[in-house]
Amino acid sequence: MLATLGDLVDDIVVQLAGPINVATDTSSIILRRRGGSAANVAATAGVLGQPVRFLGQVGTDAVGAALVAELGAAGVDTQFVHRSGSTGTIVVLVAPDAERSMLTDRRTCAELDDPRPEWLDGITTLHVPLYSLIEGATALTAATLIGWAHDRDVAVSLDLSSTALMTGAGLDSVRALVARLRPNIVFANQSEADMFGLERLPADAIAVVKNGPGPALIRVPPEADTSATTYTVPATGITDVADTTGAGDAFAAGFLTFPEWRDHPAEACVHAHRAAQRILTGERR
């Protein structure tokens, strides 16, 4: 079973028809849907038929209840989700070229506390976005769960999440944090990998660098007397992109739900591209 730890939020998606007209109206389409990096990974894994558990916190409000119910409908185990405070919100601005910018208000997502060892019962991989490791009680909870995961020989997956997040937290601090957490696999997009430095990732971790419509790069740890191996895996050709929001999370879900991702990362990457294609072409749940 895969577990994800992090945010479950209310996404308000604003699809812009063109550049924002400052101080006046801008034509757009506005949608609401479930969001949060960890929740997106869990939901995609559930839709793909993978047993998956979400660990996180939402508000005691009706929005939080609806979001948890929606995850459950996607096949996600939500039995350990905490309820406190008010549910977080993210405003996603989607430009005409389908690229997105996000305005975040995490609220109670950052305050998940009181971790329990049973959260990891039956888990083989724990996936944690960097968002969950930087602020509030959730950061301590995530680090604790990662430590317990290593003790249980549960694989640890980390997503670098955001260049703005790394800049705000301090790049040296983030590098030191990743070194302490000793992830087995690290996901990043090209900008995040460039900022962090591929060579600064733990040498024994698989590194997967997403590059939009371009080939993904995979770095496999060295074995015995060999050096690390780096190669690329082409993306699935897509001609009509509806919205890139959540595509990276779907990619991670596709990769981690491939049964032998640790031994066959190239095949897992093909599976990941297919999962991301569902999001990029507007096939969401």
Distance between the termini: 20 Å
What CATH architecture would you give? 3-Layer(aba) Sandwich
Q: How many strands?
A: 15
Strand order, biggest sheet? 6-4-1-10-11-12-13-14-15
Please compute the radius of gyration using only Cα atoms: 18 Å
Helix content: 25-40%
Distinct helical segment count: 8
Order of helices and strands: EEEHEEHEEEEEHEHHEHEEEHH
**How would a textbook summarize the main sheet?**
9 strands, mixed
Large-scale geometry: globular
Name the CATH superfamily assignment. Answer: Ribokinase
In words, what does this structure look like?
With 285 residues, the chain is of the alpha/beta class. The protein has a single domain (2-7, 36-86, 108-280), classed as UDP-N-acetylmuramoyl-L-alanine:D-glutamate ligase (3-Layer(aba) Sandwich), CATH 3.40.1190. The protein is 32% helix and 25% strand. The chain has a nine-stranded mixed sheet with strand order 6-4-1-10-11-12-13-14-15. The longest helix has 16 residues, at 136-151. The chain is globular. The relative contact order is 0.13. The mean pLDDT is 91.
